[in-house]
Amino acid sequence: MTNIEKRAATDVKASGRKLTGYVATFGLETRIGDFRETIRAGAFSASLRSNPDILALVDHDPGKILGRSGSGSLILAEDQRGLRFELELPDTQLGRDISALAARGDIGGMSFGFNVPEGGDEWAGELRTLKAIDLREISIVQAFPAYSGTSISVRSRYAMTDAARRIRILELEGGAYVESV
C-alpha cells in the first residue's frame, strides 16, 4: 500500500450517541508547506461508489474502530459543501469516551486517510487541486486538528518521520498538531 495522506476538519456535532459533520469541505484553499491545495466538488464520488466498507477510527488507529460503512454505522455522502458523515457510536468504552468528549466539545475534529489515484490531482504552479480521492478511512481526532475553524487539514507532500512531521506542523500552526503523512 502506498503512503496514505491524511487531513483533518473541525466541524463535528454530537447528539446522543451520534456524531455528524463534515470530514472535508470543497473549494477551500489550504497552504500545505510549500504548496496550496483545494478539493474539487465530487472528488470522493467514485470512491464512495466503489468502496463498500470505509472505516471510522480514532486517531487513524485501526485497533480503535468506531464504525464502518459496510455495517451501516457510518454514513458518508457528498453534498454542495463537502463530504458529510454520520457516525452511530458503539456502546463500548471507546464509543462512550468519544461520545462524552464530543458532548463537552473536547474532540479536536475529524480527519480522513486517503490516496490520490493516478490522474486524481492537477497542478497549476504551486496549487494542487484534488479531483479524485480514494478514501480509506475517517477518524475522530482527539488532539489538535489543523486549520481550526475550517474543514481542511494539513499533510506533508513527502513521507516524514513522526518527529519531523510534528515539528513541521507546529511551525505551520504556531503550536497546533494534527496527524499527517
UniProtKB/TrEMBL annotation:
* Location of the Prohead serine protease domain: 10-157
Source domain of life is Bacteria
Q: Name its species.
A: Rhizobium wenxiniae
> Which keywords annotate this record?
Hydrolase, Protease, Viral release from host cell
Q: Which GO terms describe its molecular function?
A: peptidase activity
Q: Which Pfam families match?
A: Peptidase_S78
Sorted alphabetically, the Gene Ontology BP terms of this entry are:
proteolysis
Q: What is this protein called?
A: Prohead serine protease domain-containing protein
